[in-house]
Amino acid sequence: MIVLSKRLQAVASMVTPGKRPADVGCDHGYVPIYLVQSGIAQTVLAMDVNEGPLSRARENIEKYGLSGQIKTRLSDGLKNYQRAEANSLIIAGMGGLLIRDILEDAGHRGILEDFDEMILSPHSDGDVVRRALDFWGYTIDREIMLTDGGKYYTVIHSVKAEKAVLARERCPAAGPEDEADYREQDDMYGGYLIRRKDPVLYQYLTQQLNDRMERYDRIRNLDTPGAKAHLPALEAELGRLKSVLKRFEDGHKE
After folding, report:
1. What is the mean pLDDT of the chain?
2. Which Gene3D superfamilies does the UniProt entry name for this protein (predicted)?
3. Cα–Cα distance between 40 and 43 in angstroms, integer?
4. Are 135 and 142 in contact (CB under 8 A)?
């Protein structure tokens, strides 16, 4: 049985048993191998934009005797995906801007209609990914934040909008008096995590706040126009971080 890293294990755990996943950016093919070995999926489509990683994925798939269940394909995002090949989409290990671009390209070509669920793990710009999901008619019904190798990662599970009633029950809307601020915070840091007062997110936010406060104090003491120009953006970020942390500490259920 293949052993996954903590991050990849979190990604695999989000796949609904019985689905037919397509793993975009499969790298060495570890997640597809695990999904088949564990019985979560019977078949997986493993795709990567680079022949090198895809070749290593093929070698690993053959090593575990799973060539009949895991199909590999060279593909830039979902450009070489064929309709109805999968109903679960995995994209992990990329920046949020690239994930958004993949979703946008697939959405304009009608391909996203195939996927009942998406499991996305952006390395950066998570707010961009969350807004893209909303734009394309998906709602976040689960989210995990974890540390692996000293870095923070989030894994997002989203479902089609017709299942949004269940998602709203799990992740209720913010109060109307704070709706605009809450929406921005939810996009930036993950509303699902905030409302459940996730301890890993709380740790991350606290570290970010301390880092920004130290930076603010350094810049504020520099008497140069360039340094002063950074202060408004830092003040806004500090305000946002303090506001999110207050939602953790208030103790009331949103």
Report:
1. 91
2. Vaccinia Virus protein VP39 (3.40.50.150)
3. 9
4. no
